[in-house]
Amino acid sequence: MTDDKRARWPEWLPLRHELRDRSPYGAPQVEARARLNTNENPHPLPPSVIEAITASISANLRDLNRYPDRDAWQLRTVLAGYINERITHAATDSPQVFKAENIWPANGSNEVLQSILLAFGESVAGFSPSYSMHPILSEAIGKSFKAVPLRGDFTPDLAILRGFLTAKKPTIFFLTTPNNPTGRAMESNEIREIAEMVAEYGGLLVIDEAYGEFSDCESSIALIHQIPSVIIVRTMSKAFAFAGARVGYAIARPEVIDALQLVRLPYHLSAITQAAAIAALGQSELLLAEVDRIKQERERVAQALRALRFDVIPSDANFILFGGFSAVMHDAPLDGPAIWRALLDHGVLIRDVGIDGWLRVTIGTSEENDLFLDSLRLIVGQ
Ligand SMILES: *Cc1c(COP(=O)(O)O)cnc(C)c1O
Known about the structure:
Layout: H1 3-6, E1 34-35, H2 47-61, H3 73-91, E2 103-106, H4 108-119, E3 124-128, H5 133-140, E4 145-149, H6 158-168, E5 172-176, H7 188-200, E6 204-208, H8 223-226, E7 230-235, E8 248-251, H9 254-260, H10 271-282, H11 284-287, H12 289-307, E9 311-312, E10 319-323, H13 325-328, H14 336-345, E11 348-349, E12 358-362, H15 366-380
Parallel strand pairs: 1-11, 3-4, 3-5, 5-6, 6-7
Antiparallel strand pairs: 2-8, 7-8, 9-10, 10-12
Helix pairs in contact: 2-10, 3-10, 4-5, 6-7
């Protein structure tokens, strides 16, 4: 928020002190031919999925005079089925069965993250750079967030982390893998080591797997069986092309899920959302069909960026962080914000995530990616 906007809060408004200097979270939404700034799935839902969702919602409309199932049992059962079939099997040889009792869905994984913060502990920490909502959600409810810096190549330094955790013992430690905004996935042995470190002093490790379906790495959900204080958070917003419906979920031990229900709003998930999500999960094969195509496009864009001699962080997600601008643009030096602006002039909106020397681009349709790359070539004069 700019200074003049900040000054706008009137005297009579008893806004909490720590909120006075804050601005609402959100990427700038400006008109652009290619909107590659919020990591959405660029492909609209297939017609057969739309039909299934429409039928599922229709069947519930008569009963909108009633409150929805406040525990969302059917949706949780269907989510458990998805996880057992699609995620756990890829992650382990022995079937590790999750049940509805292990799942907690809410309006986007952001609401899940907020519930975790409301339910547990006092102090919060996580790596930086990582998902900006982790500190924003923490601080909005009055819990301080401490950041542990990643290395220059955005990998974790476990020795530094060990020292930090031993000294500070944050109740909640956030780990995002694949990480946003870097795209990097963390090694599973490192994740396990971090989970053990956090469990040792009685903390909770929240692993944000919002981009899990785009990664070739295993999910960490099998860790839940060995370390009870691990919570996995996933979402239907990205891979499922379901951002507009607002459905995310936690996977954890039943004790963790029970505790989350202490802080949930009554009837938090509307009957319409539940019906839509159940129908969509019934079509997960079709909905996830585009994931492979997005991964192929990601590799194509990464290669093209490397060919232009940008630095490219290896990505396991549906976006790419790229930098090294001074080496590419030695004739007409442009920094990140200038490249961001020049791309927007070409009709391409990407994201300046606030890391000096880096920009993030979401993988779009192949036409959108071409427009991005062609515009970038014009800008760098190649
Ligand atoms: C996009 C994103 C989310 C989720 O968002 P919802 O739409 O609220 O499910 C969560 N974590 C990370 C790291 C993300 O990038």
